[in-house]
Write a structure and sequence with these properties.
56% of the residues lie in helices and 0% in strands. The chain is an all-alpha fold.
Length: 277
């Protein structure tokens, strides 16, 4: 099965062009807009993620199918309640995936790609990881619940398409009830911020309610500074894709104790051994 998001790629590219032109003809001094090298890098990362992701999707389908087969019940796609359950279960799975990929360094090494731009525009949404293998476990429980694999894949694509539109500075805060329930460009700008107050906040996919319930929500206040706390300063797609894996490997090799090696891999980004007394 070809993910639905693949069919949306031409629309993504067109909207990137439209947004870039909007900065050309309607500039805003408070917004960073586009930079050619940055945009080319984001597009390259997106293309690479699709090339790698398509064969990996076959593995994903096989795993989901195996779990669906052993599930004690199979939910019917003809039932509206199955779709309601899928919507909330998939969004919660995305929250768990997203939070883990910010709090465990070996997972962050994959996800950091998406945060590596110092700009925030629709092309940033396309700056995706080339190592999608870390995502699989977080959606496996949905297949065990008896949700057909094709439905899981479809809802994942719906979520990704929705999130594409969150990557913009051109949309201000929306109607308050919408901001209360749904992830919005304002909430997602916070998520991409390197400001201390914004770090590890607003992990939601379509909904923002999980962040509100689980204590990871932060409203947009002070001006967002995009990028990483230590920016990598490169437009080379290979370095963007693998720089954090290389940094983690250097730390593991330099560590003298096994618990420190484990900390560098499974602790949060920025973890280091406490100074010895």
């Amino acid at each position: 099965m070809i993910p639905a998001v693949v069919y949306a790629i031409p629309a993504f590219v067109l909207l990137v062009v439209v947004e870039a032109l909007s900065y050309r003809f309607l500039p805003d001094d408070d917004e960073r807009g586009y930079e050619v090298r940055d945009t080319v890098t984001s597009m390259s990362m997106g293309a690479g993620s699709q090339i790698i992701g398509l064969p990996w999707k076959a593995v994903t389908v096989l795993v989901y199918a195996a779990l669906f087969t052993v599930s004690p019940w199979h939910l019917s796609p003809a039932s509206g309640w199955t779709w309601v359950l899928l919507f909330f279960a998939e969004d919660l799975a995305y929250y768990a995936f997203h939070r883990a990929h910010h709090r465990v360094r070996v997972l962050w090494a994959s996800h950091v790609v998406h945060h590596s731009s110092v700009r925030f525009n629709l092309s940033t949404a396309l700056r995706q990881s080339w190592t999608p293998m870390t995502t699989l476990p977080f959606w496996m429980p949905l297949a065990l619940l008896g949700i057909p694999p094709w439905m899981i894949l479809l809802e994942q694509s719906v979520s990704l398409i929705y999130q594409f539109f969150l990557h913009t500075e051109r949309v201000d805060k929306l109607w308050r009830p919408v901001e209360r329930v749904f992830n919005t460009p304002s909430h997602h700008r916070v998520h991409h911020g390197s400001n201390n107050v914004y770090l590890d906040r607003n992990y939601g996919g379509i909904l923002i309610v999980w962040d509100r319930l689980l204590g990871t929500f932060e409203p947009e206040g002070e001006r967002v500074v995009y990028g990483l706390t230590k920016n990598i300063g490169t437009y080379n797609p290979l370095r963007v894709a693998f720089h954090e894996y290389a940094a983690a490997w250097r730390d593991v090799r330099a560590a003298r104790r096994w618990r420190d090696r484990a900390g560098y891999l499974f602790g949060p980004p920025g973890w280091s051994p406490r100074a010895e007394g």
